[in-house]
Amino acid sequence: MKLPMLGIINLIHETDEMGTLTQGRCLATVPFGGRYRLIDFVLSSMVNSGMQEVAVFAHTKYRSLMEHLGTGTNWDLHRKQNGLFVLPPAIEDQNDFARGDLYHFYRNRDYFARSPHEYVAICRSHMVCNVDFEDVLRHHRDHEADITVVCKANPGSIVGLARKVRVDETGRIKDIQDHYGRLSDDVVSMEMYILRKDLLIDLIETSLAQGRDHFVRHAVFSRLDQLKVSAYMYDGVLGIVNNIASYFRHSMELLQPEIGRELFFRPGPIYSKGHGEPPTRFLTGADVNHSLVANGCEIDGIVENSILFRGVKVKKGAVVRNSIVMQNSVIGEDGSLESCILDKEVEIQPFQQLRGVPDMPFLALKRKVI
Amino acid sequence: MSRKENKECIAMLLAGGEGRRLGVLTKDLAKPAVPFGGKYRIIDFTLSNCVNSGVDTVGVLTQYQPLVLNQYLGIGSSWGLDRREGGMHVLPPYVRSKGGTWYKGTANAIYQNLGFIERYDPEYVLIISGDHIYKMDYDLLLETHKRNRADATIAVITVPWAEASRFGILNVDDKARVTEFAEKPKKPSSNLASMGVYMFSWPVLRDRLIRDEADSGSSNDFGKDILPKMLEEGARLFTHRFNGYWKDVGTIESLWQANMDLLGDKPGLDLNDHSWRIYSVCPNQPTQYISPAAKVQSSMINEGCTIEGEVHRSVLSHGVHVGEGSIVEDSVLMPGAVVGRGARVIRAIVGDNAVIEDGMRVGRINSDEIAVVGSGVRVSGQQLKEVETV
């Protein structure tokens, strides 16, 4: 089914407190769940919902993003018609970098004008979820809303940084506040905004003309009384991942099989870039339990309660507990990890021991030798 | 006149084999499409060898049960063979103005596609088949072929004497020129076996195929007709020695053994070799999950598996589920196979999407034979105490 909606993944000024995990990459391409990048979740949701076209507004450190997305083939977005568009910042000088997303949208107004879709969905990359936008659009039309915001009620203890939302009994949003606000309602915004394309263009032009350039803060916050802004309540698995604590917590949640099954398959499968790794080899010294393991690993040690990305080597006698080890890292013989996050290609020397605590995992920089 | 795309060397990949000796595994499937090594199908090895050797034009000759194979191959993108000029082409038998026939033999299959080869006007044609597991640089074979100014060069490998009578056996002189060729001899006089990988100079091959087709007594087969005839008539027939891992997976035992060769701390065949990747179609599955109750050793496990039982010395394809209390030993489980709770699977090959229900037993320890469960079969109710094929 074709959905008359343009997907926009907005990476401009995304809230990012990921420390060294985003030192060399943008938030969208932080590795997650053993073989995914954060952006895969919203991108796959869009494709599975029937969107024919997705535009990614890149902002900074987007080398890894370009490499990951490629031509969009892995998400079936390599098409003759529509497909995937990556739009890097179209800036005149360095100062333009600091300007808000509306400015960047405006610089690409030709693109919006040409787009044949009636609606747009403006989303962020750091929401780990599996959303059916067709259902969101149905809600939007049924409620005759100007803007529909995808929200999650009672999200549990959110450790990521999220905006809170106050909703009245009719489902209309009365207040939205940034994560540090005092709003105590137990509804968070998933930063997914569905509206008509012509309303978006109007908001872009009007806001900029008033000297304001942030989509959510200026175009939406200030118009809650003029526009009908409705909340759509998402009831699937959600991880808001934009700081280390939330990254670690939501990664570890995937070890509960029912959460994994729900997130990766319902309502549609999550796609990612495929790599040519062979299946993982378990050697004679392998003792793995309660773990997620990607392809291309070689395991000859103990792995417990952990997530191994592709191509990780756990040598004989090594122990990996409560940890996340990204692609191609090596844990040397008799080395040991407890509550650690190793970025890509980290090498742990034999007999080395590293220890963090769940609330403050030890974080090793990409390509570090320890 | 239309422009011809001249290529130095193109490959013709014989993938029409029925694989009768693989029994239920090839009931609805061409042999080259049989799953292998947890993530591959047999044909991935030859296709990847082509790409890694710099051969970018491959004609794949299909005939028997081609549906799954065709869908799998697509336009060759998974192997980087979707090329503007050349690339992968599936070549089934086709109808001509004067009739048209099935491929009668390996040589006839190539003969019927002379037109395809002519479009590329190559200097050399590589003949390979989609039922062997090996990693080989065909460029080295081409070098040998050129150095010897050969008409045809046969890739050979030393096999154990006991198995020699299963292969095409060659004798060579000190310059590696073939002096004798016998297809599956009862009393082999050498243990140098043909790998079924041939490099031909195109004008020679063309001439031979046309003459072979005109010979009504010929069975139109490379090993039985073309090569013996060339030897008899004094053609320059040379060998190229290959020293790596090579396995013909034409039987249940050899298919099982080749899977087992991937295991162990120092495997006979290393698939984690970044300089010689074996490519395959990505099934897009999440990472495998190994539960707290699971125990996995000396095994190879692909994405999308859920392991809650014990797995020893086994190869598991994507989406396999092994339930709690079950034991899988010395076995090969193909995509989507499900082993319930408290079941045992020993020395077996379990076809794709087959189901072994709770408490069932498949296979026997210390048995010489490998138990086989066909694709989509549900094993329930009766205890398979005997080694059986279902």
Mean residue pLDDT of chain A = 94
In total, the number of strands of chain A is: 28
Query: What is the CATH class of the largest domain in chain A?
Result: Alpha Beta
Could you give me the name of the CATH homologous superfamily of the largest domain in chain A? Spore Coat Polysaccharide Biosynthesis Protein SpsA, Chain A
Strand content of chain B: 25-35%
Q: How many DSSP H or I helices of chain A?
A: 9
Helical element count of chain B?
Answer: 8
- Strand percentage of chain A: 25-35%
Tell me the span between the first and last alpha carbons of chain B: 57 Å
SSE topology:
The complex is a heterodimer of chains A (370) and B (390).
Chain A: E1 3-10, E2 31-32, E3 36-37, H1 39-48, E4 51-57, H2 63-69, E5 83-87, H3 101-107, H4 109-114, E6 119-123, E7 127-128, H5 133-142, E8 147-153, E9 164-167, E10 173-177, E11 187-196, H6 197-209, H7 215-220, E12 229-233, E13 239-240, H8 244-253, H9 257-265, E14 280-282, E15 287-289, E16 291-293, E17 298-299, E18 302-304, E19 307-308, E20 313-314, E21 319-321, E22 324-325, E23 330-331, E24 336-338, E25 340-342, E26 347-348, E27 353-355, E28 362-364
Parallel strand pairs in A: 1-4, 1-6, 4-5, 8-12, 14-17, 15-18, 16-19, 17-20, 18-21, 19-22, 20-23, 21-24, 22-25, 23-26, 24-27, 25-28
Antiparallel strand pairs in A: 2-3, 6-11, 7-13, 8-11, 9-10
Helix pairs in contact in A: 3-6
Chain B: E1 9-14, E2 35-36, E3 40-41, H1 43-53, E4 57-61, H2 67-73, E5 87-91, H3 106-111, H4 114-120, E6 124-129, E7 132-134, H5 138-147, E8 152-158, E9 168-172, E10 178-183, E11 192-201, H6 202-214, H7 222-232, E12 237-241, E13 246-248, H8 252-260, E14 288-290, E15 295-297, E16 299-301, E17 306-307, E18 310-312, E19 315-316, E20 321-322, E21 327-329, E22 332-333, E23 338-339, E24 344-346, E25 348-350, E26 355-356, E27 361-362, E28 371-373, E29 378-379
Parallel strand pairs in B: 1-4, 1-6, 4-5, 8-12, 14-17, 15-18, 16-19, 17-20, 18-21, 19-22, 20-23, 21-24, 22-25, 23-26, 24-27, 25-28, 26-29
Antiparallel strand pairs in B: 2-3, 6-11, 7-13, 8-11, 9-10, 9-11
Keywords (chain A): Glycogen biosynthesis, Nucleotidyltransferase, Transferase
Family (chain A): Belongs to the bacterial/plant glucose-1-phosphate adenylyltransferase family.
Enzyme class (chain A): transferase
